[in-house]
Amino acid sequence: MAEPQDATTAEVKRTLSVSEGGNRPSRRRTTTNRSGTDGLAGPTTRTSSRRSEIIRKLTMPPKPVGQAPPFWQGVKAIILGSWLNVLLVFIPISWACHFALSKSNEHDTLIFVFSFLAIIPLAKLLAFATDELSMRVGQTLAGLLNATLGNAVELIVAIIALVQCQLQVVQASLIGSILSNLLLVLGMCFFAGGTRFSEQGFGVSVVQLNSSLLIISVIAVLLPAAFHTAAGAQIPDGPEAKDILAVSHGAAIILLFIYGSYLVFQLFSHKDLYDDKNPDIFKSTKYQKRNRNAAANGDSTSADGSSVPLNRITSGSLAGSPPSSPSTGHQELPRNGDPESDPASQPTSEGEEEETPQMSVLLTIALLTVVTVVVAVTAEFLVDSINGLTASGHISKTFVGLILLPIVGNAAEHVTAVTVSVKDKLTLSLGVAVGSSIQIALFVIPFIVTLGWILGKPMSMLFDPFESIVLFLSVLVVNYVVQDGKSNWLEGMILMCLYVIVAVTFWYYPGVVDLAQLNTC
Q: DSSP E strands: which ranges in 311-447?
């Protein structure tokens, strides 16, 4: 009985020794490989993981997105999305007038009016497609898309006018877009929100930063005009035009660098400042309502107009969770059962409802492409008809560029900004109005100057001195209005009235003749 056991033991020992001997070299090889590749694979792995994290943040939507609807349902959403789509009928009318009618001042006036009305719904469709596309990406990439496509209409009109060497129209339209956003759009937002709220709050830090950026861009616009005023009499027109172009090209490159830094600041490093839940934002207050029945029942009216029972306050239930508790941010009590102002009715970050898209991705991209092409063609007809419109002398090119053309590109933004301001989303309204002004001042203007440099067009930052002064004063007025972080209906009315004064003034303003000679192709 002992011999089989000894044989079995010997066999087991032999098997273990062979396995250890066979595994030992492989273990050494594994160790050697690990030690030899650790220096390379470690940083490479970390870099790839960082790259993957950045891509995930850019492409991951903040809220879950539902299933895209069928094709025909998406087409229906495009057609019935806004009442402005009624104006789409003017697209074929403007095209037919351009090709069928002969060249005359009366016909150019008709083409201008029809093209003007046709571009308004196209701008709305462009904003609609941008929102649908932004829904499917992360907040950072969505903000970049909105910043890029937000002023697409103004950019297209400016490029076409630049190619046709309508430099006075280009400059007036860019200045007019900033004035329209700062005075008209922002004033309408303040006034519309003030009809429902006694005071509306927004982030002071962000607004002050935006005001600083606008002032910097306005200074860059004023410097060539100051150069022309101070040294224009000493330098002949030919060398002076070259010097002003050189100054404008350098300033344009610096402004583009500032805009890139601003995008990094807004979308990456300090994006929390632009969050609606930032504690820097003041709470909005509704109008106080005097309710005798509520007073008889022992209710008290809070500072924001909400009715709060006295027994809830005296029972100490609010003592442990004050409204200014750091853990809850700027939380406020329900206001008269308004679901928009009740924090409890707002969806939490843990249980957010999914967003339902109205179009598929392919239909969204197709809509963006088609609308951009139609806008480019219609804008070309619009710019072609400006000379015939202004030939009679009843209306000037300055008024067309400063007042009329900005309405075309900003009509959709007007509706969006006013709608969200009534819903107590004034931060979003400021992002539309002031953010669009910053993009025009820091991106569109220097981009057009750089593009003119490439195309050989004498497009400079030598704007009309009167236009530059009006822009500077408007930026100062807006800075004083928003510096307290609150708004009311009176401030909105002041801004709108100031815009009307500017419009009336430029109706009679003839423009500067010597600047037209310097900006001649």
A: none
Going across the sheet that includes 197-201, the strands are 285-286, 197-201, 486-487
* Domain count across the chain: 1
Instruction: Give CA separation, 255 vs 219, 402, 449, 483, in Å.
Output: 11, 22, 11, 24
Distances (CA, A) of 296 to 6, 288, 291, 311: 103, 17, 9, 13
Does 98 map to a domain?
yes
Residue-wise DSSP of 160-214: HHHHTT-HHHHHHHHHHHHHIIIIIIHHHHHHHHHTTEEEEE-BHHHHHHHHHHH
Q: For 285-308, give the secondary structure using H, E and C.
A: EECCCCCHHHHHCCEEECCCCCEE
pLDDT digits (tens, 9 = 90+) for 360-371: 888 888 888 898
DSSP states of 43-60 as a string? Answer: HHHHHHHHHHHHHHHHHS
pTM reported for the whole predicted model: 0.73
Q: What CATH number corresponds to the domain at position 152?
A: 1.20.1420.30
CA distance 106 to 16: 103
Whether 137 is covered by a domain: the verdict is yes
Q: Which pLDDT does position 251 carry in this prediction?
A: 92
C-alpha 305/C-alpha 425 separation (Å) is: 18
274: nearest Cα among 364, 210, 370: 210
- Give backbone dihedrals phi and psi of 21, rounded to 5 degrees, phi first: -65, -35
Q: Are 457 and 204 in contact (CB under 8 A)?
A: no
- The more confidently predicted of residues 141 and 248 is 248
From CA 459, how far away is CA 518, in angstroms rounded? 10
The pLDDT tens digits of the residues spanning 137-174 come to 765 566 666 666 777 888 888 899 899 888 888 999 99
Question: Angle at CA 156, nearest 5°, toward 152 and 158?
Answer: 115
Q: Indicate the residue type of 12.
A: V
Q: Which residues are bridge partners to 18 per DSSP?
A: none
More confident residue, 183 or 233: 183
| Tokens standing for residue 165 | 């060497």
∠71-73-78 over CA atoms, to 5°?
95
Predicted pLDDT at 210: 85
Contact between residue 411 and residue 419 where contact means Cβ atoms under 8 Å apart? no
Six-digit token pair at 238? Answer: 């030919």
Helices (H) and strands (E) in the chain, counts: 21, 5
Please, is 165 exposed, middle or buried when counting C-beta atoms within 10 Å of its C-beta (0-12, 13-18, 19+)? middle
Residue 24: pLDDT band (50, 70, 90) is very low
User: Per-residue pLDDT for 438 more than 80?
Assistant: yes
Q: Is residue 477 part of a domain?
A: yes
Domain limits at 224? Answer: 64-282+356-519
The answer to whether the CB of 395 falls within 8 A of the CB of 389 is yes
Which of 80-84, 95-99, 320-324, 406-410 holds the top average pLDDT? 95-99
pLDDT of residue 304: 46
